[in-house]
Structure formats: C-alpha cells, structure tokens
Amino acid sequence: MMNLLLYVGQQEQNLELVFWAVGILILFALVVAIVWQRRTGNELEEELQQLNKQKQKNVEFDFVLKAMGLSVWHVNAETGELYYDKDYREKREDQTIGVEGGTFQENVAMLVEEDAARVNKAMSELCAGIRDSYHEQYRVMVEHSSKTYWEESYAIIAERDIDGKPLLIVGASQRIDSRKELEFALKQALSKAEESDRLKSAFIANMSHEIRTPLNAIIGFTSVLPDIEDNAERQELIVLIQENNQKLLRIIDDIMNISKIEAGKEQLQITAFDINMVLSELVNKYLPSVSEGVEMTTQFPAPQQEISSDMSRVMESMDHLIANAVKFTPQGSITVGYDPVNNHRIRLWVRDTGKGIAREDQERVFERFYKVDEFIPGAGLGLSICRTMAFSLGGNVGVQSEFGKGSYFWMEIPA
Questions:
Q1: Is 244 in the same domain as 278?
Q2: 120 is in which domain, residue-wise?
Q3: Which one of 163, 189, 197, 210 counts the least CB within 10 Å of its CB?
Q4: How many secondary structure helices (H) and strands (E) does the chain include?
C-alpha cells in the first residue's frame, strides 16, 4: 500500500513537471509570436509609410508635369516603338498628337522637314547607344494646315542589357511657342538696341557735321562781311548767310518737332483748310531751289479741296517730302498732288524722276537718322518726322521706288 502511494505521488510530480514544461513552452511561443507580430506590424507600417510617400511623390510628380505642360514617353530601343506614359500638354486645335505605339520615325515625320532629319539622327544615335542623352528643339506641322509650332524634347537611356546595349529610352516633350516668341522679341529688342546705339552715334556724327557746316559758313561770311566794299558782293554774302541760317534753323526745328510730338507735348489743332492752297504754297517755296532743267508741277483733281486736319503738321510733312524730291532729283520732273477723297481719307503724294531707292532701303528710310547716301547733306530726320506726324494724324506714309528711276512718296490721312 505504501509503495502504491509513493508511485502515485511520483506520477503526480512528473505530471506537474510536464505541465510546467508545456506552460513554459506555450509562454515562450506566445512571446515569440508577440515579438514576430510586432516586428511584422512595424514592417507593414514602414511599407505603408513608404507607399504613402511614393503616392505623395507621384502626386507631386504629376503636378509638376501638369504645371509644365509636359508629355512623358518611352521608346523601345530595339523596335523603335514609342508610347506615351503621361500627356499633360494643353489640348488645342493646332496640336499634333503623336502616333501611340508607332515608331519614333513615324512621329518624326510630323516635323518640319529640315528639323526632322536632325531629330531622327539624334534619336537613332540614342537608341544605338552612340550617345547617352538627347535634347532637341523642333517645329511640328499642324495637321491639315500650313501652320507649325515649336516643341522641345529631352531623353536618356533608362535601361541597358548585360552588354550595355540600350533597351529603354525615356523622355519628355514640351510645347515652347511662348518661349520662342520671347526669344524672338529679345533678339529683336537687342537688335533694336544695337541699331539705336549705332544710330545715336550716327546722329551725333551727323549733327556735328550738319550743324557745323552752316555754322562755319555763317561765322566765316559774317567775319569777312565788314571788309567787303562792293555792294553786289556784300549782297551775295548776305544771301549765303541767310541760306545757312535757314539750314541751321531747319535742323534745330526738325529735332525739336520730333521730340515734342513723341513726348506728346504738342496737341493737334484740327481746322478746315484748302489742300490745294497748302501744296501750291510749298511748291512755290521750292521752285527756286530745283536743279536746272527739272520741271516742278502740281496735279490736283479738283480746283479746290477742303479737308479737316492739323494744317501745320500736314505742311511740315509735305515740306519734307518735297524737299527730299528736290534734293535727289538732278534732272527730269517733280510732281506734287493728291488723289480724290475716298472713304473720308485723302492721299497726298510727291512723284519724282530722281535717284530712286533700292528695295532693301525703302522701309528703313523712315527710320530716325537713317541716310541712304551719307554724302548727301541732311540729318536723316525728315522722313522719320513725316511718319511720326502722319501717325499722330491717324494716317500713314509709304514709298514706291525703283533705284535709278525715281520715287513716289505718299501720305494718307483722314480728311
């Protein structure tokens, strides 16, 4: 009996040890499970954070693409097939959309011919691994139209095989019309600034010469005038002094007139007057100055034609046109006239058989300080003043000329 009790006690003790061992194992398993679960949770949380960051980057990336109006594409370097991943270019009627899934050569064919060859060569070299990157600007032809627009593209090799041969090309394109317009405007502004600087230098040189010439004559003739006793010779000197006075006064008046008009300090004085009378007065003024053998006449479609304008500006403008005709017509004829009023506008003109103006100079003659012939006296302001005054009257000026055969200058203004 005692042995039985001892055996039972021993078995209970062993069973208790087993329970303890199992409990410890379960506890250890629970601890391991909790640690593994926490670690897995942390990894999942990190992955979720990375995913959110990636999503945020994608949103920011898309925002940048959209803000810049970019299209993102890739090209299979082996087949040349082009696919658009994202396209945020502004959808416009004059926009040419590339061929999705077509080769880049098919897309290049949509460019202006002289740009297409260059772009095709650059992309072919990129696909062949000859170059690592690509950057081109080119003109795209608008479908069913003769219009074009500018685009700019960048591309790089994104993937290579084990031998380094390109597999994937990624790139982006952007329409750059506004930038090209700005570049053109800047070039024009630079050109004008350089031209203005050149003209300023020419103006200073011209003014120095044009002012000094009559001034020297005035000073020289005036200094010898007291020593001249012969009345005829004295009168001749006085006439020369007066002529040079008028030349000097004309130069100063030209500079003052164009400055006042452009500064807006002179207001229009609109009155009604007979244009026949004004033109006849100007012709009579220049009749004594025409070269010997030159015939100066008028051609009026009516015995009287009243118009409403600023008479002083009309006279000033036509005075310059007539003066130029007299200056550049050594033989032949000079005719001053106007066309009948049409749609409340009148065209005044001066036609001569003088030296004429080369085609490339016909627009530039109206620029300030520009002179076709530097050896002919003058400040290069007369025609510029004509254009400024014509614009101020709501009109315009122009010229038709053939070198060596004469010129036809006109001014058209409201009547």
A1: no
A2: 67-175
A3: 163
A4: 8, 12
Which pLDDT tens digit goes with each residue over 193-217?
A: 777 777 667 666 666 666 777 788 7
Nearest to 209, CA basis, from 43, 28, 25, 374: 374
**Residues forming a β-bridge with 151:** 138, 175
H/E element, 37: helix 2-68
103: which 2 tokens? 């080769």
Same domain, 94 and 163: yes
Residues pairing with 333 in the sheet: 295
Alpha helices in 225-345 (DSSP H): 231-263, 275-286, 311-327
pLDDT single digits (tens) 36-66: 767 765 666 666 566 555 555 555 545 555 5
207 with 286, same domain: the answer is no
Residue 81: how many other CB atoms lie within 10 Å: 16
For the four alpha carbons of 216, 218, 219 and 221, in that order, the dihedral sign comes to: positive
CA atoms of 411 and 349, how far apart (whole Å): 6
Q: How far apart are CA 16 and CA 301, in angstroms?
A: 138
Supply the pTM of this predicted model: 0.48
Q: Which two tokens stand for residue 212?
A: 């000094």
Beta bridge partners of 347: 412
Give me 172's structure tokens: 């982006």
Instruction: Tokens for 87, please give them.
Output: 């396209």
